[in-house]
Every structure is written in C-alpha cells, then in structure tokens.
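Please review the protein record below. Let me know how this chain folds according to its tokens.
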Amino acid sequence: MTRADYMLRFTEKLGGLPHERKQEIVEDILAHFTDGAAAGISEETLAQGLGQPEILAREYRATFATEAARDKPSMGNVMRAVWAGIGMGMLNLIFVLPLGTAVFAVWLSLLISGVAMGLAGILSSLLTLINMVVPLAFVAIAYPLATVFGGIAIAALGALLFIGILYAGRSMGKALVRYIQANLQIISGRRKQHAQEH
C-alpha cells in the first residue's frame, strides 16, 4: 500500500476527533513515512509496519477518548472511553463490558436508593408534621416527634449515601479509564515494536 492510499484510509477513520488533534496525528504518521523514506525503506514496508490504517485510527480515537475521560471524568466521557477500549480488543470485550455493566448497575441502584431514602425521610417527616396540625386518618403515628426525627435521620442517611455513591462513581470511572489506558499502551507498544521491526 502506498503512502497516499494509507493516509487516505487512515484520515477517513479519524472522524470525531477535533481538527487540531487530527492534524497532529496526521503529521506524526506522515513524519513516520518521511523518516522511513529517508532511511531507504519502501512505502509498502512502512505501511505494513504501521498495521491496518483502520486499526491505527481506532487506537488514536481510543487514546483521545481515555484522555478526555481522565481530564474530565463525566459519565459521557467515561462511557466513550469504555466503548473505545472495547473496540480495541477482545480482552476488553470479555472483561470490561460485563464488569463495567455490573459495576454501573450496582452504582445506579445505590444512587437511586439514596434518593429514595432521602425522599422517604422527608415525606415521613412532612406527613407527621401535617398530622400534628391537622389530624389525618391515613397517618396514624404513636410518637410524632420520634417519627419526625426518624424521618430527618433517614433523609440525612439517604443524602449521605447519594453523595458517597457520586464520589465512588467518579473513582470507579477513573479506575476504569486507567485500565483502558494501560491496555492501549500495551496495544500501542506492540504496534510500535512491529513498526520498528519493519
């Protein structure tokens, strides 16, 4: 494959990256071809050393996604990094997808539990206070003040659970991004080693 063919296929697959980042990447790959040509290596050999242009572009997109998730660990950035990492290899598909899905499900259920506890505590306290002022038939409470304070305690525990789960989710997202980055470095290292051998 010639340099022009390789670069055409490669740049087509860099979609979704910012223009400046695309330009840097394209310049790096062109420099690889220029340096190799100066050393007397054919374009076909250099292209073969880089590997398939689609796979190389996927690697660059995955690296960009993990860097974005590391710098700003929002749910969207972490999920983009996970999908990019899954696209890089079967090991990620086998390991990250089920584990990531399970961790996300537990995280989401605990987050919803925190919200539910908070709302239940607030509702319980409000109904008890309303019952103290205007007796309601559907709220029969023996110890109204204990119920109010119990409701406040439940609401506070729910709020603490919610906040704790948010921080835990951020930490889990960062750990997942570090794992994906480590995989990308392994894959990238193999590609670079293969390119140097050719």
